[in-house]
Amino acid sequence: MGKQAVTVIGLGPMGQAMARTFLANGHPVTVWNRTASRADELVAAGAVRAATVRDALAANELVVLSLTDHDAMYAILEPAADALAGRVLVNLSSDTPERSRAAAAWATGLGARYLTGGVQSSPSGIGKPESATFYSGPEEVLQAHRETLSVLTGTDYVGTDPGLASLYYQLQMDMFWTSMLSYLHALAVADANGISAQEFLPHATATAASIPDFLAFYAPRVDAGNHAGDVDRLAMGVASVEHVLHTAEAAGVDTALPGAVLEVFRRGTAAGRGGDSFSSLFEVMRKGAS
Ligand code: NDP
């Protein structure tokens, strides 16, 4: 039996990588993109260009969406809403959990089956089994199409709630953007002191490599509400972040990021947590914290 045919709607860097990977693995691919020219190379590589969204939906049961956000999905699919019945929509566009739930309800109401996906890879990781995508929605729908979707990345099923894949994705992005911005900030301070990014790289790498041990240490303590100051104390953290901020200030570098970090640390000490671990900031930041 031949490989399952797939429609890919949305040909930004991610959608292009996905369509290319399906083609490379022998899957017949139909593509549609608002800016039609972005399909040219894929068509040259064997994809079929759908003339309209309606044609793209009619071509295959399995339809992968790779769009900027859910607004783009509604802009594209609402005019062809009556063509969604019987389709399996796999929405690999990022958005919030609430909007993923609303999108699932919308598509399901029109007779489609719907999976949310959160891709944890850059386009260059598509087609590599070590990359992974969070999926949520009806498990039987994922099972029915897992073999095909596995061509893109590993499939990490996180539950029936269509918002869950988005939630896990956003949790990762919450960490990713802040960490990467702190990296750029450190590079700016290094640069102001005549140290290049390349020179700093081994040290930055060592710092990043130390993080998993901290995560593993604090996870059970946070779950248990144990913020004992036996290993670190928030008051020490405040002094440390002040040093970071003053070092940036002296270098003439923007202090918005360490300033924001310091503000949260100081809220912790104002809440009487100075003798507790810095992990007590979890309590300061969580919903309903006073
Ligand atoms: P892009 O934003 O570059 O892709 C955008 C796609 O959405 C294009 O096909 C674009 O069409 C289309 N689009 C946007 N707005 C509209 C609209 N109003 N109407 C019609 N089409 C629209 O994103 P990427 O390809 O980089 O990523 C796709 C998704 O994957 C995003 O949700 C992103 O968060 C996620 N992702 C991306 C990663 C990455 O490294 N790139 C990593 C992990 C996840 P047109 O070509 O006509 O502009």
TrEMBL record:
Family stated for the protein in its record: Belongs to the HIBADH-related family.
InterPro entries: 6-PGluconate_DH-like_C_sf, 6PGD_dom2, 6PGDH_NADP-bd, HIBADH-related, HIBADH-related_NP60_sf, NAD(P)-bd_dom_sf, RedAm-like_C
Pfam families on file: NAD_binding_2, RedAm-like_C
Organism listed in the record: Marinitenerispora sediminis
Domain 6-phosphogluconate dehydrogenase NADP-binding: 6-153
Entry-linked SUPFAM superfamilies: 6-phosphogluconate dehydrogenase C-terminal domain-like, NAD(P)-binding Rossmann-fold domains
Name this protein carries in UniProt: 6-phosphogluconate dehydrogenase
Domain NADPH-dependent reductive aminase-like C-terminal intervals: 161-287
Source lineage: Bacteria, Bacillati, Actinomycetota, Actinomycetes, Streptosporangiales
Gene Ontology MF terms in the entry: NADP binding; oxidoreductase activity
Annotated keywords: Oxidoreductase
